[in-house]
Amino acid sequence: GVVNRISALITGINTMAGTTTTVMNTAIQSIREQSGNLGGMIADINEIADQIGQTLESVKVLDHNNSALLSECEKVDELTEVMTGIIASNVEATELVSEAIKEETIALKHLSAIGLRFETVTEELYSLQVKEQEIPQNIKELTLATSPYPPYIIADVTGAVRGIDIDIIHEIYKRQGITVKVNLASFDQSMRLIKNGYADLVPTLSKNPERLKTMDFTENYRDPSRYVFVALTGSTIQVSTFQDLKGVVVGTMKGYGYWEAFSKDSAIKKDICDKEDILFRKLMKKQIDCLIMNEHAARYYIASNTLQNQVRFLAFNYVEAGGSDTRIAFTKAKDMDYFIQLFNTGFEALKSDGTLRAIEDKYLR
């Protein structure tokens, strides 16, 4: 059964994890050793270049003396041979580094394969939890799938999930005697779970024709979002207008909807990431020029990770003229119209009685 498959999978994960760790450690050690060799070779090449420079100066001085000139030229030949040998060794070392990187890439592919297998079994577990469709008014628990998106969806080290969107959803359905079970999943897995009916809802989604094939949506529940661009404090990049983004490498989040002009402009180079952590890590390593985020999400992440002195906001920002499009998506695999209406009316009630403002202030002030 599924339990046996999970046990076998865990055993396989432990075995592959051990093998992967060994391969990666070996690859990393090889890279370190070869990097040291490369550094020594560069120092040798620089020393030889200095010697050649000194010799050429001697050639100028000794130009009137043919015998001395011949002697100096022979020295140049000898130094050139040594340099050629070092360059050959350098090439060999570079090939070793390349091979080590290939080994590390193979190890990462192993880890990726394990992750995919684990996601498949996880989805099978979700499918076992799905019961026959009850009368909507009799259902007292909903299943939510989502990935972290602070401050709207925050997961702590214990696995507990909170945040603006989570608190809003809990409050709306709590008033109707309905609990919401929150399950953390990757964005792609959340999409599969809701399409197959293994999850009832996914928050913080925009509505588009493709998603409408498998999902129904609530009304928009977020005020217009301001998009901001973040760069390293010490970088020279300046973006004051939309046109300044042409040719700039911008880090973006997978599955997030930006405004149409930005999304469709091929002159803006976009590097797509799965998580905010990866987005900022790439920025710190200068693999991207800047990143784009919702302003609240950006300020929350920067403050939470004490990056105020390492990053800065660029001058250009954007607020969509038509407002944001942020909704709760519900699966079409079940009859969820009742719960969509509960959310829409419940959200208006939160706005009217001040609860919405209190929730937002808790995370944004």
Describe the protein's architecture and organization.
The chain is α/β, with parallel strands linked by helices and 365 residues long. Helix content is 53%, strand content 16%. The strands form four sheets. A five-stranded mixed beta sheet has the order 9-8-10-7-11. A three-stranded antiparallel beta sheet has the order 5-12-6, with helices on one face. Strands 1-4 form a two-stranded parallel ribbon. A hairpin with a 5-residue loop joins strand 2 and strand 3 (161-162). Helix 1 (2-61) packs antiparallel against helix 2 (66-129) and helix 3 (164-174) crosses helix 8. The longest helix has 64 residues, at 66-129. It is globular. Mean pLDDT is 79; it is low at 58-70.
Task: Throw out a few tags for this protein.
365 residues; alpha/beta; 5-stranded mixed sheet; 3-stranded antiparallel sheet; 9 helices; 12 strands; globular
